[in-house]
């Protein structure tokens, strides 16, 4: 099946960005999958595999987040010996990024250039409030529009009630119950990325992301594993980030199942994910209120009258502390980089 790049979001901005690299041996494309230095890229003439060029490798040495990821728009170069190299990642409009396991506050890009990030949470066996809050902070920080998708809605008698309950954890975010088995909510989900838009799915293993991709694509494009009924957990079915073009236009990015996700300096994303707490904090008597025992604390007053749960406040405190720690680590890393000489660029353009 062939796709015109405009069906995947290629627009006037990208045409302008690519213009200075436009030459007979180069071509634009969108990364479908990146795996150990080799990228599968969709171009105007079909799908090709490309190794990373020197300039990309040098930039990635400075910042691992510069490595190409699913959803990236890139510049390819075709060589006389039939090799194809990925020479440049074009500027991203949005970026879904999580903290890696190291201690220098570097990031791993899960998806790029998506219009909507859907946090996928299964209703069975039971939604995890803290995980939803953490993933929504990540989604808000990406710059894309967040969406909360509740899968396996056929496992409860009243999915609308569950949606209302979780909606309290997602101020300003649409909540969509979906059942692929019953066909409920799939068309509405498809409406979020019609034509040339891109939807990224974010959630734990077994949440039903790959099943959603298959339903949206109208065919089996991602492997699906049966999960254990007792705890709802399953094996990781997607170990890599994968962009799937959808017939008729648009694309879905299926990210790996995430057991835990570390936040970087997602201050704005956290503030928007906890807009209710942020709004209360703005009403405190003192600007430096720690929301503990200070007089005139609007946050503690809300906990006292039941309009804010102690659990949600504790979740906000935990994530806020995590962001502060990561911000300090990032500042230290950038300071070390400024003191180190930058490696020379090897761009061939």
UniProtKB/TrEMBL annotation:
It is found in: Cytoplasm. Residues 330-339 have a biased composition (Basic residues). InterPro entries: G_CP_dom, P-loop_NTPase, Ribosome_biogen_GTPase_RsgA, RsgA_GTPase_dom. GTP binds at residues 151-154, 203-211. It comes from the Bacteria. This is Small ribosomal subunit biogenesis GTPase RsgA. Zn(2+) binds at residues 284, 289, 291, 297. Belongs to the TRAFAC class YlqF/YawG GTPase family. RsgA subfamily. One of several proteins that assist in the late maturation steps of the functional core of the 30S ribosomal subunit. Helps release RbfA from mature subunits. May play a role in the assembly of ribosomal proteins into the subunit. Circularly permuted GTPase that catalyzes slow GTP hydrolysis, GTPase activity is stimulated by the 30S ribosomal subunit. Its EC number is 3.6.1.-. The keyword RNA-binding applies. The keyword Metal-binding applies. Residues 104-261 form the CP-type G domain. Monomer. Associates with 30S ribosomal subunit, binds 16S rRNA. Residues 112-259 form the EngC GTPase domain. Pfam families: RsgA_GTPase (PF03193). Keywords: Cytoplasm, GTP-binding, Hydrolase, Metal-binding, Nucleotide-binding, Ribosome biogenesis, RNA-binding, rRNA-binding, Zinc. It comes from Actinoplanes couchii. HAMAP family: GTPase_RsgA.
């Amino acid at each position: 099946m062939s796709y015109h790049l405009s069906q995947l979001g290629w627009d006037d901005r990208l045409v302008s960005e690519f213009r200075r690299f436009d030459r007979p041996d180069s071509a634009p494309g969108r990364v479908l999958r990146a795996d150990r230095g080799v990228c599968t890229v969709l171009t105007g003439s079909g799908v090709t595999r490309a190794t990373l060029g020197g300039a990309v490798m040098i930039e990635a040495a400075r910042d691992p987040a510069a490595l190409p990821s699913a959803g990236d728009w890139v510049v390819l170069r075709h060589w006389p010996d039939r090799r194809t190299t990925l020479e440049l990642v074009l500027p991203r409009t949005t970026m879904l990024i999580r903290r890696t396991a190291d201690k220098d506050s570097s990031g791993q890009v899960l998806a790029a250039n998506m219009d909507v990030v859907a946090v996928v949470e299964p209703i069975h066996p039971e939604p995890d409030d803290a995980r939803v809050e953490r993933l929504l902070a990540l989604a808000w920080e990406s710059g894309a529009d967040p969406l909360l998708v509740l899968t396996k809605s056929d496992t409860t008698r009243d999915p609308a009630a569950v949606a209302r309950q979780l909606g309290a954890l997602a101020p300003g975010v649409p909540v969509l119950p979906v059942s692929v088995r019953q066909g409920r909510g799939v068309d509405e989900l498809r409406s979020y990325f019609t034509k040339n838009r891109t939807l990224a799915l974010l959630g734990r293993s077994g949440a039903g992301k790959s099943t959603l991709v298959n339903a949206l694509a109208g065919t089996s494009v991602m492997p699906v594993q049966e999960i254990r009924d007792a705890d709802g957990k399953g094996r990781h079915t997607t170990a890599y980030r994968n962009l799937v073009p959808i017939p008729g236009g648009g694309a879905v990015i299926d990210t790996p199942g995430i057991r835990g996700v570390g936040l970087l300096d997602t201050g704005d994303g956290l503030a928007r994910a906890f807009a209710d707490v942020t709004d209360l904090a703005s009403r405190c008597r003192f600007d430096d209120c720690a929301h503990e025992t200070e007089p005139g604390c609007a946050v503690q007053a809300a906990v006292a009258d039941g309009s804010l749960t102690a659990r949600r406040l504790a979740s906000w405190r935990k994530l806020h502390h995590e962001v502060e720690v990561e911000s300090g680590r990032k500042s230290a890393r950038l300071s070390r980089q400024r003191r180190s000489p930058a490696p020379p660029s090897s761009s061939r353009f």
